[in-house]
Predict the structure.
Amino acid sequence: MGKKNNKNGKKTVSTTNDDFVEDRAPSQDRPSSDNQRDNSVRDLDNEKAKAEKLGLCTKILEEKVKKIETELKTAKYELERKETIEKEKNKKRASTATNDDVGVER
């Protein structure tokens, strides 16, 4: 490192790239195994993120399916109840009609 004067006349310390030691070489200078490892880690992270997103989507869909199944069961129960009530009304009508018919024949 050498000292030199700047525009204002103050002394500054100049540094060269050789003074700094990089922890890692740039990606193009690294061995391909490091690049492959980095790519594999990135791919795994992407797959993990996709799986988590799919898991959340699956949970949401399962909740929607449960809600729809509940609504379907409720609608089915109400329909059966209405059909039963209608059958009972028809039986009463039929029984009163036959009683009236029998009464008329006498």
Observations:
- The chain has a mean pLDDT of 78.
- Helices lie at 32-105.
- The first strand starts at residue 2 and ends at 5.
